[in-house]
Amino acid sequence: DAGVIQSPRHEVTEMGQEVTLRCKPISGHDYLFWYRQTMMRGLELLIYFNNNVPIDDSGMPEDRFSAKMPNASFSTLKIQPSEPRDSAVYFCASSGRDRPFEQFFGPGTRLTVL
Amino acid sequence: AQKVTQAQTEISVVEKEDVTLDCVYETRDTTYYLFWYKQPPSGELVFLIRRNSFDEQNEISGRYSWNFQKSTSSFNFTITASQVVDSAVYFCALSGGATNKLIFGTGTLLAVQP
């Protein structure tokens, strides 16, 4: 089975532009998580979904960030407008109902905002 | 509040040496899970182990072993006979209560010199 798939793997954009990151969880998994990794803050959870419903978005830094999960096999994380301080690696992870605490991570999207 | 502390920022060893990575956690939950993840230079996060709070048995997997001690709130990770391929950042993480949120430590960069 394929792992968690994220696209794009790298994104370079200019300040003020909209950025959309995409994630396809492992088939059959019903939990999906978005994390951000920076040198300053380390790995931090932004938001997570259960059965496509957002459960905890307390880690979303501000209103410029939004996440959606329109179906069980796709999620997006959108930043609008982007700022240089949003530069980071964004990871998506998923886990299944039978082992909800075991999260499998995608390869990450490295975002650079100039 | 939940917290994970990895006091060792960087460790450098010579190949074939044993090395222990320390992890101390804080939580008020009675049921919780502890994890170790490996992040090699390529950037992906690789799941290594999960341990629940009711299982204090130490675990060994090849050259890897984990020592969980509730009395000291520690979940240490030992690599025996280290190899260059073990060079990576290692993260300890905690999840507990009614949430699936992973709280990560700041990571330990392990450099294994040939």
List the helices and strands and how they pair.
The complex is a heterodimer of chains A (114) and B (114).
Chain A: E1 5-7, E2 10-13, E3 19-24, E4 31-38, E5 42-50, E6 53-56, E7 65-71, E8 74-79, E9 88-96, E10 99-105, E11 109-113
Parallel strand pairs in A: 2-11
Antiparallel strand pairs in A: 1-3, 3-8, 4-5, 4-9, 5-6, 7-8, 9-10, 9-11
Chain B: E1 3-5, E2 10-14, E3 19-21, E4 24-26, E5 32-39, E6 46-52, E7 59-61, E8 64-69, E9 74-79, E10 88-96, E11 103-104, E12 108-113
Please give a handful of descriptors for the protein shown.
heterodimer, A: 114 residues, mainly beta, 7-stranded mixed sheet, 4-stranded antiparallel sheet, 0% helix, 60% strand, B: 114 residues, 6-stranded mixed sheet, 12 strands
Uncertain segments of chain B are: none
Listing every helix as H and every strand as E from the N terminus to the C terminus, the arrangement of chain B reads: EEEEEEEEEEEE
Tally of strands of chain B: 12
Query: Total strand count of chain A, please?
Result: 11
Helix count of chain B, per DSSP? 0
Radius of gyration of chain B in whole Å, from Cα? 14 Å
Average pLDDT, all residues of chain B: 92
Terminal residue distance of chain A: 36 Å
How helical, in percent, are the residues of chain A? under 10%
What general form of chain B does the structure show? globular
Radius of gyration of chain A: 13 Å
Tell me about the largest β-sheet of chain B.
Answer: 6 strands, mixed
Structural class of chain B: mainly beta
- Content of β-strand of chain A: over 45%
Reading the helices and strands of chain A in chain order gives EEEEEEEEEEE
- Helix share, percent of chain B: under 10%
Largest interface: A-B, 24 and 20 residues
Explain the overall architecture.
The complex is a heterodimer of chains A (114) and B (114). With 114 residues, chain A is mainly beta. Helix content of chain A is 0%, strand content 60%. Chain A has no helices and eleven strands. Chain A is globular. The termini of chain A are far apart. Chain B is an all-beta fold and 114 residues long. Chain B is 0% helix and 54% strand. Chain B contains no helices and twelve strands. Chain B has strands at residues 3-5, 10-14, 19-21, 24-26, 32-39, 46-52, 59-61, 64-69, 74-79, 88-96, 103-104, 108-113. In chain B, a hairpin with a 2-residue loop joins β7 (59-61) and β8 (64-69). The chains are: A mainly beta (114), B mainly beta (114).
